[in-house]
Amino acid sequence: MLSRFETKESISELYYNKLNPISEIPKCFFEINTKIFSQSSTTFNDLEKVETIARWMILNIQRGRGLGLSSEDTVKTMTKEKGGVCSDFAQVFNNLCVINEVKVKEWGFKSVSKKKGIQGGHSFNEFYSKELEKWILIDTYKCIFFYKTNSDIPLSVFELFDTLKENKKVIFKNIEPTYFTDPVRVKDVYLSSNSVPFLITNYHNKTYDFYLKKFNYLPIFITHGLIYLLGKSYKFLFIREINFQPK
User: C or N terminus of the chain, fewer CB within 10 Å?
Assistant: First the structure.
């Protein structure tokens, strides 16, 4: 994987759907989508679609070890209650958004924290609401949105960090009321100076699925190394304007 610095403006049109058309999403995701939406999702706006997907994921997928499998094997493993980590949740969410014609991005945190469970970072998503005409940060692993106080409009990634930079209060709310998210863990991940966000781009799901299945007899890290050497790996883009987080 490669990393470099970009600006807010330069990444505005970089989203997962551009490299991953609906025609390339594995069939199993469509089967799951029919379970998520008891009626046609065309009756939902983008925010309602995403909330419905997030609720289904948090109530039907168990956590566990990191998988690092093809997208098809990942979602099949996760729905059989064998678990997955935040990056696996983000991977599944990406494809479900594509099916439902919602623009989506995947983000990550590089963490230098020494706290167990936070080391190594965290993955989350952002989607575009046509109705609100804005991007919205969503963490499906924690099933939360972020807000400014006295506002019911969820924040985008840039809005979140701009608000923090201004030393203004940020709150989060659970999307699924029956699911409890530990506020201390949210603070450690999102509101800590130890976490630096980056956008994940150049992720071609079909390419990764092909190599992870073709070389499934190899250790996963070797397959990812091969994809990198072939110049087909994803990239980490750090945003110049996001250079501050409160302690």
Answer: C
Residue by residue, DSSP assigns the chain as -EEEEE-TGGGTT--GGGTS-GGGS-HHHHHHHHHH-SS-GGGS-HHHHHHHHHHHHHHH----S-----HHHHHHHHHTT----HHHHHHHHHHHHHHTT--EEEEEEEE---STTTTT-EEEEEEEETTTTEEEEEBTTTTEEEEETT--S---HHHHHHHHHTT--EEEEESSTT----HHHHHHHHS-TTEEEEEEE---HHHHHHHHHHTTTS-HHHHHHHHHHTT---EEEEETT------
Q: Enter the pTM of the model.
A: 0.89
User: Among 230, 4, 195, 5, which Cα is nearest to 114's?
Assistant: 195
List C-alpha distances in Å: 174 to 14, 124, 196, 216: 27, 15, 23, 37
Distance of alpha carbon 238 from alpha carbon 6, whole angstroms: 6
Q: What is the pLDDT of residues 183-207, one digit of tens each?
A: 888 888 887 766 788 999 999 999 9
Distance CA 213, CA 72 (A): 10
Name the CA radius of gyration of the chain, rounded. Answer: 17
Higher-pLDDT residue of 35, 246: 35
Residue pair 113/187 in contact by the 8 Å Cβ criterion:
no
pLDDT band at 118 (very low <50, low <70, confident <90, very high): low
Residue-wise burial string across 152-168, b where 16 or more C-beta atoms lie within 10 A, e elsewhere: eebbbbbbbbbbbeeee
Beta bridge partners of 195: 111
